[in-house]
Amino acid sequence: MQSDIINTIVFIGPTGVGKSRLINYLAEKDVAKTANTLQSVTKGLQCYCVNPQDSTHGFLFVDTQGVCDTTMSNADVVSLISDALKNKVKKVNYFILMIKSGRMTDENRKAIEQLITEFDLVERKNHVYVLVTNCEILNGQALTRLENEVCADRTLKKLLKMEKSSTSSCHEVVNLSFTGLPDPKDVNVLMMDGVRKWMEVQRKPLMKYISKPISAIEPNLRCQTKHIDLFQILHCS
């Protein structure tokens, strides 16, 4: 039975960061087309109404075309996405900003700073979730070190939301996580069960976060006309 859609989630990031693959992981089925290529598989916007088995409600997942597409200029990509937003998306509850692990390039930093300027303090910390990919080979210490680097980064920390921990008196970041998003075709069959279990551990906190009810940003207001500028300057890591 089709569940009511409670939240619209827009996935943004460069070509190859794993936006479409993440949508499939969250939906628990292959709804978005994926490929290992420097050309963006998603053209303009692709919208998917999904009803994950472990959720009592549905979502509208909005996959966006990545930049650094070898077949199109960034300006053309922006035009496609802008037109699609006007026609397809009525509200946005959360933006998932996906970046690759590793040192941030100047282009990526400029892109994120541009995004930040379009939100006020409350908006950017309530509506943006930062997901770092390409973390599948990191062990506990390396992952902790990466998390500390992200939290200390002069740009990313402007997006991160701190809340008091439910298990201690410390504060913790609640809109940041790390994942690997491996292509199943690239995983040894003997390791597949372990990879699935690992991905489920990564999936749950993100699903819980984007399931929270929150007032939507209307695309026909400043969100639609200004946030799209992010795609003009976002480049691959």
Summarize the structure.
The protein is an alpha/beta fold and 237 residues long. It has helices at 19-27, 74-88, 106-117, 121-127, 140-152, 192-210, 219-226, 230-233; strands at 5-12, 45-50, 58-64, 94-100, 128-133, 162-164, 171-173, 176-178. It contains eight helices and eight strands; from the N terminus they run E-H-E-E-H-E-H-H-E-H-E-E-E-H-H-H.
How would you describe what is shown here?
- The protein has 237 residues and is an alpha/beta fold.
- The protein has one domain: 3-Layer(aba) Sandwich (Rossmann fold), CATH 3.40.50.
- The chain has eight helices and eight strands, in the order E-H-E-E-H-E-H-H-E-H-E-E-E-H-H-H.
- It has helices spanning 19-27, 74-88, 106-117, 121-127, 140-152, 192-210, 219-226, 230-233; strands at residues 5-12, 45-50, 58-64, 94-100, 128-133, 162-164, 171-173, 176-178.
- The strands form two sheets. The chain has a six-stranded mixed sheet. Strands 6-7 form a two-stranded antiparallel ribbon.
- The radius of gyration is 17 Å and the shape is globular.
- The relative contact order is 0.20.
- Residues 220-237 have low confidence and may be disordered.
